[in-house]
Amino acid sequence: MKVVIMNGTGGREMLEHVERPDPVAGPGQALVEVAFAGVNFMDIGVRQGLAWTETPNPKILGVEGVGRIVAVGDGVEGVSPGQRVAWVYAPGSYAQRIAIPAASLVLVPDAIDDRTAAAVMMQGLTASHFATDFYPVQPGDVAFVHAAAGGLGLLLTQIVKLRGGHVIGGVARSAAQIRSLLLVWPRPRRPWAAQHHEPAEKHQDRLRGVP
């Protein structure tokens, strides 16, 4: 099978498209034919030596994707060959096939195409965590979303809106532009800062360090 590996720390020149033996599904695993692999910022961090440093090179990049199960190992329940599945964290996803713990897979509805499913898992779970777990957005809340035009920002904006909140979308080239936007926007009725007994100004000051 074909895979994308990194041969060392550095730029894109460290990546190489090479042949590797097909993996085999072990106990508790499913062997998946990868249709699309998600490309995330963490993949760049790995290539730059910021993560996975304990794994020797060459190593296969990627953690996210979507595909169809072709085989399952012993003890696997809940998924079966032929099903379309997606996953959020399975190292080595830049490959035509990958053996993944079956517990890490989610079934993909027919209404969602492969390209969308491959792109939404990691960013979608992150956005959901921000708006439902870290702080459950309530109707009338106002959320300031950094980089609202990016993948995570677009998903987070939609989730906040679905929960009845309002969004200030920050799309700027400098921290000064973001600070200016916050200063002219009306103070929300129930700011996150107030929920945590901290002055809103404290959070505005933190933007001074935003690159």
Structural notes for this entry:
With 211 residues, the chain is an alpha+beta fold. It folds into 2 domains: 2-115, Medium-chain alcohol dehydrogenases, catalytic domain (Quinone Oxidoreductase, Chain A, domain 1, Alpha-Beta Complex); 135-209, no CATH class. It has 6 helices and 10 strands; from the N terminus they run βββαβββββαβαβααα. It has helices at residues 41-47, 114-134, 151-162, 175-184, 192-195, 200-206; strands at residues 2-6, 15-19, 29-38, 59-60, 64-72, 84-87, 97-101, 106-107, 142-146, 166-170. Helix 3 (151-162) links the parallel strand 9 (142-146) and strand 10 (166-170). Helix 2 crosses helix 3 (151-162). Mean pLDDT is 85; it is low at 188-211.
| CATH superfamily (homologous) name of the largest domain | Medium-chain alcohol dehydrogenases, catalytic domain
How many whole angstroms does the radius of gyration measure?
A: 21 Å
CATH class of the largest domain: Alpha Beta
Number of helices: 6
Principal-axes shape call = globular
Q: Strand order within the widest sheet? A: 7-3-5-6-8
CATH architecture identity of the largest domain: Alpha-Beta Complex
Structural class: alpha+beta
| CATH fold-level name of the largest domain | Quinone Oxidoreductase, Chain A, domain 1
End-to-end gap: 41 Å
As for the number of domains, it is 2
Relative strand content: 15-25%
Average pLDDT, rounded to a whole number, is: 85
Low-pLDDT stretches are: 188-211
State the major sheet. Answer: 5 strands, antiparallel
Residue share in helices?
25-40%
